[in-house]
């Protein structure tokens, strides 16, 4: 049997408590389009992406908030081309009143040039937007581990 040579992440499914609230957030922050949506009883769903590429699916079938103390998703990360795009997204998030893990753009590690912002969606799901270069090569907010690791 031949293993796949070009394996990529397809899309990420996220459980949410309020589809309307999450749709507004993900569309505003990531400029996603709704590619499809529907419902099954009282459960609703939406497929989000850009162009015809599916990136995130939202599933309204949860209660409570994201549990960071249980096995499962640690955080969801998105890469953009420039740190200026990261900072523009940060402004959108601040206007929405989003909760940030660190203040401003932070490097991925000590003296790294890649870096981004770390924040939560309305259900407390940890998210990251980063650029591969352009972060200020300064002290990272955590030592001995990647910035995206223990928060």
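^ structure tokens above, recovered residues below v
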């Amino acid at each position: 049997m031949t293993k796949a040579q070009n394996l990529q992440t397809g899309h990420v499914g996220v459980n949410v408590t309020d589809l309307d609230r999450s749709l507004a957030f993900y569309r505003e922050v990531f400029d996603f389009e709704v590619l499809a949506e529907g419902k099954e009883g009282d459960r609703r769903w939406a497929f989000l992406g850009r162009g015809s590429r599916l990136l995130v699916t939202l599933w309204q079938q949860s209660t409570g908030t994201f549990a960071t103390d249980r096995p499962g998703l640690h955080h969801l990360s998105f890469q953009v081309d420039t740190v200026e795009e990261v900072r523009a997204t940060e402004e959108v998030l601040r206007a929405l009143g989003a909760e940030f893990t660190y203040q401003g753009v932070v490097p991925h590690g000590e003296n790294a040039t890649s870096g981004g912002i770390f924040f939560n969606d309305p259900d407390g799901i940890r998210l990251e937007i980063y650029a591969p270069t352009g972060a200020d090569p300064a002290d990272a907010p955590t030592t001995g581990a990647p910035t995206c690791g223990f928060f």
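Helices lie at 19-30, 83-96.
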